[in-house]
Amino acid sequence: MTRHILIVEDDEKSRRLLTDVLSFHGYEVAAAENGEEGLRHAKARKPDLALLDIQLPGISGFELLMGLRKAQGGEARYPVVAVTASVMEQDRRKILAAGFDAFVSKPVNIRELLATVAMLCARNES
After folding, report:
1. How many Cβ atoms from other residues are within 10 Å of residue 32's Cβ?
2. What is the DSSP letter of 42?
3. Residue of higher predicted confidence among 45 and 79
4. Does pTM top 0.90 for this prediction?
5. Peptide bond before residue 47 is cis, with ω within 30 degrees of 0
6. Mind listing the pLDDT tens digit for each residue in 36-65?
7. 102-105 and 80-84 as β-strands: parallel, antiparallel, unpaired?
8. CA distance 117 to 49
9. d(CA 76, CA 37)
10. Number of domains composing the chain
């Protein structure tokens, strides 16, 4: 079964890297360059997992997370991963406390990204 991944990243090179890597590894990927576009996509077709940049134009990754969770209503929650250059310990605590399931540091370590996505998709199946 192919997993649908939503990527919300305003930086074109980062968005392309994430899209290319995940597509190459068999995931179906949709990419958005801002939070509003990402929220519209998520409402139209619920992803199996979402990767969100924290620093987005318009609504932030934190605000987008709240919008995604609200849009899910009583449905089963899909995992949401923060993709961020903010890697200080207090940033990590804030990200997890906000309700993100995990985070991936920028610059992105491809092995870490793939392991995190695979683990969360598998966990969400059970």
Report:
1. 22
2. H
3. 79
4. yes
5. no
6. 999 999 999 889 999 999 999 999 999 999
7. parallel
8. 8
9. 22
10. 1
